[in-house]
Amino acid sequence: MTHRAAVISALVVLALLVGGRWVLAREPIEAIATEQGLGPPPEATVPSPSPPEPTPSAASSPTPTATAVSPKTPKPRSGIGPHDTRRLTGSRKVALTFDDGPHPVWTPKVLDLLRRTGVKATFCVVGTEVRAYPALVARMIREGHTLCNHTWHHELDLGTKPEPEIRANLEATNREIRKAVPGAKIAFFRHPGGRWTPAAVKVSRELGMTSLDWDVDPQDWKKPSADAIRTRVINQARPGSIVLLHDGGGDRNGTLAACPAMVEELKRKYGIVLLR
Ligand SMILES: [Zn+2]
Question: Which regions are flagged for Pro residues bias (predicted)?
Fold first, then answer.
């Protein structure tokens, strides 16, 4: 290599390094740290006209640079929730679940809406509310929806109690449901607040119920606007999502108003399936 060629090569490498650094400087802090630890940016190695002259950082690079920059891929979500609970539907289609009812005002409106849109859902019902409004539970079953035990009185700490107490609570709730609808199938159990414990999951399994977690939670119980609920659900949803909504426990105007457009969009993007 002539002196002139060597100078040109050095200048080219220098220019690429400086250029690379400028590119890096616009990246987020984490990206800079990662990339600097792994060697030069990809563009510094591609168009080099001179024989590859090892730079200090390239020499110490343990892995190919190409793997250092991964495009933003969504984090894969497991179909298994805490303590072996179920978090996804098992197919591409998503499922809707409504908790804390039945409620004399909101549940009929949710049922009307589901009937209008031709969608079936899962209702996680509370024993005391079932006792107060048994006809609504009968309507859920009559219209083809799935039932889920949501404890006797929405006890958030039930899972921390001794197993016999958990069992008595869940059995009392199932008894009340079957008083409303003799022979009703109760396929699922959902712990209030998602505060799953191994004991709660074990007892529900022994009673023939699958513990039903969720994958999408728009926090509709905090009463955000209908727009916020819809946007959160659509943004969080992915194939197989189980969506947590509420038909009881407070003013559900936001949830109701969010539903028509949200349900149509979920139908179009994924399809909606009934959990069984
Ligand atoms: Zn609840």
Answer: 39-55
